[in-house]
Write a structure and sequence with these properties.
Elements: H1 17-24, H2 29-42, H3 46-57, H4 61-69
Length: 90
């Protein structure tokens, strides 16, 4: 089981932090958003600060899967520099 936290591009409203938490723990997204709103109001907005920090730190689930399974974009091969006067034509 993967123990990393992540955010999701699917089912997101702002940056996907709450969608990622609900996917990780198999909760309904609406329930997690409602609990987050109650937490934020009860703690005078500290939830917004935590959300911003998590949005800037957490990777997306798609990026984690691409790294894990190698399904990301193909990597460019570093080519060797060609000298101007390599002597093959003239």
């Amino acid at each position: 089981m993967n123990s990393k936290f992540y955010k999701m591009r699917r089912n997101r409203m702002i940056s996907g932090v709450l969608a990622g938490l609900s996917d990780k723990w198999n909760f309904d997204v609406t329930l997690v958003r409602f609990l987050f709103a109650i937490f934020t109001v009860a703690n005078f907005g500290i939830g917004v600060i935590i959300y911003i920090i998590l949005a800037s730190i957490l990777p997306t689930k798609e990026d984690i899967e691409a790294e894990m399974y190698g399904t990301g974009p193909r990597k460019r091969k570093e080519a060797q520099a060609i000298e101007e006067n390599d002597g093959w034509f003239w």
